[in-house]
């Protein structure tokens, strides 16, 4: 009798976990937990993109006009995500 109840409980739990796994519910929940602090993520992305543009502008294989256009592109990028992080104080000039 007890064995039958444990077997039924196990099969029900297995069915529930299979349903959750098929509908990607654990991945969706974990991604919400992972990206709770979006400002930090945006600031990191902003700095990575800026570093990539600087590296492209400094590359010796680029001509001077390409380097100038990349530098101008870097100047026109908005700096709002880098200033919105709570870890960096806002500088007023």
Mean pLDDT: 76
Dominant shape: rod-shaped
**Share of helix, binned:** over 70%
Structural class: mainly alpha
Strand fraction band?
Answer: under 5%
Main sheet: strands, sense, barrel: none
Radius of gyration, whole Å: 25 Å
Q: Compute the number of helices.
A: 5
| Count of folded domains | 2
As residue ranges, the low-confidence spans are none
Kindly state the number of beta strands.
0
> N-to-C terminal Cα separation, in Å?
78 Å
What letter string, H or E per element, gives the SSE order?
HHHHH
What would you note in describing this structure?
With 93 residues, this protein is mainly α. It has two domains: 6-36; 39-79. It is 74% helix and 0% strand. It starts with a helix and ends in a 10-residue tail after the last helix. 1% of the residues are buried. The model has no long low-confidence stretch (mean pLDDT 76). Residues 58-93 are annotated as: Disordered. The chain crosses the membrane at residues 6-26. Keywords: Membrane, Transmembrane, Transmembrane helix. Residues 79-93 have a biased composition (Low complexity).
Note the topology:
Elements: H1 2-22, H2 25-34, H3 38-58, H4 64-76, H5 80-83
Helix pairs in contact: 3-4
Any descriptors?
transmembrane, 74% helix, rod-shaped, membrane, 0% strand, mainly alpha, single chain, 93 residues
Quick structural gist:
With 93 residues, this protein is mainly alpha-helical. It is built from 5 helices and no strands.
